[in-house]
Inverse folding.
């Protein structure tokens, strides 16, 4: 690669006419073949003539039309927007004499993204003045995507390990609390001074046992949700997953005449854990129905979209709403409830938040009392 770059350095300023034609001096058969074998594309910039040159391999990688004439003015168009600042800073430093070798997310002529290893070096004249830049880039998209996927998997594993530790601490706290109450009550029974007192304490034992059983049941549900997180990340259809979730609550939807509008046209599929995604749909739709406004039928909007190059999911309802000033900090807490509903437990949002964050996502809420609630999940 360095040898090829050196050759291009010598021929850069010889001729810049007839871009991409066979008459260009770089189209020497040997170096043309070498470029093909190594898969390196060459991009040269002449500061004196204010012209740019793309060799045939560069044209192939960038998929430019045969008659495309490169220009420094539009060079940034071949870099992904999130890499524009880095590309500009790197180019300016190279103009001052600093060579570079970096991984960039680039774009083809038709805006298809790919990763490339990009190396650049300034070109000097006989007086050691910088008169141009020679850039060589190599398509590393497949290897880079595998690297990114591996890094993400490691981050997810680390996040899940941390959550499992915190979860173990939480289990220990809840079970110790029940055990302490039970032990204290049994001690009091042994020292009871009347049959009435003993009866009352015995009932306490029954109540504690019932509460302990519920706690274990809830913890099993949370553990089950964590175990599902061990599932493989795969390509998941948002529309199919929503349909599967809604099928399971068909009677509930029919009973309350729920209207659901969904649009996944912007992001129809994502790489995710299917069980997690299904849980988001099932529980957030169910909550919208349970906490519906008494004066109107439940209406739920579900969308997928991009925000700052991140995939997002929005679930919006027209229900009772939540007082976020009062309950915002506890919204995703375990056993936290905010409406007078006897069967409310307060674990579903806790589970959703843990699942979202275990995959390095975020979940945010907007809500107005009497108007409705919107959940936005960055997946």
């Amino acid at each position: 690669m360095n040898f090829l770059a050196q050759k291009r350095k010598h021929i850069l300023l010889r001729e810049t006419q007839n871009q991409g034609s066979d008459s260009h001096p770089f189209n020497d058969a040997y170096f043309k073949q070498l470029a093909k074998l190594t898969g390196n594309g060459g991009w040269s910039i002449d500061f004196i003539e204010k012209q740019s040159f793309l060799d045939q391999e560069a044209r192939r990688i960038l998929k430019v039309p045969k008659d495309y004439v490169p220009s420094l003015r539009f060079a940034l168009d071949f870099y992904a927007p999130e890499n524009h600042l880095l590309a500009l800073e790197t180019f300016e430093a190279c103009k001052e004499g600093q060579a570079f070798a970096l991984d960039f997310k680039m774009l083809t002529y038709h805006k298809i993204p790919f990763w490339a290893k990009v190396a650049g070096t300034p070109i000097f004249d006989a007086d050691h003045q910088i008169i141009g830049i020679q850039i060589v880039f190599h398509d590393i998209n497949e290897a880079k995507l595998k690297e990114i996927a591996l890094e993400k998997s490691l981050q997810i594993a680390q996040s899940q390990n941390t959550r499992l530790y915190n979860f173990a601490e939480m289990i220990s706290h809840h079970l110790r609390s029940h055990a302490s109450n039970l032990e204290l009550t049994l001690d009091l029974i042994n020292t009871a001074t009347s049959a009435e007192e003993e009866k009352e304490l015995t009932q306490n034992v029954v109540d504690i046992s019932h509460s302990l059983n519920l706690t274990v049941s809830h913890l099993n549900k949370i553990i089950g949700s964590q175990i599902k997180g061990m599932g493989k990340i795969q390509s998941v259809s948002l529309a199919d997953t929503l349909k599967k979730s809604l099928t399971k609550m068909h009677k509930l939807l029919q009973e309350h005449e729920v209207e659901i509008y969904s649009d996944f046209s912007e992001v129809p599929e994502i790489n995710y854990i299917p069980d997690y995604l299904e849980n988001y749909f099932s529980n957030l739709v169910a909550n919208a129905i349970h906490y519906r406004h008494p004066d109107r039928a439940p209406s739920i909007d579900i969308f997928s979209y991009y925000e700052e190059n991140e995939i997002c999911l929005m679930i919006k309802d027209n229900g009772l709403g939540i007082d976020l000033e009062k309950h915002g900090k506890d919204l995703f807490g375990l056993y936290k409830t905010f409406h007078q509903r006897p069967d409310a437990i307060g674990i579903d949002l806790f589970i959703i938040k843990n699942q979202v964050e275990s995959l390095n996502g975020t979940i945010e809420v907007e809500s107005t009392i009497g108007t409705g609630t919107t959940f936005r999940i960055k997946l």
DSSP finds eleven helices and twelve strands in the chain. The chain has a mean pLDDT of 78. Residues 141-190 form the longest helix (50 residues).
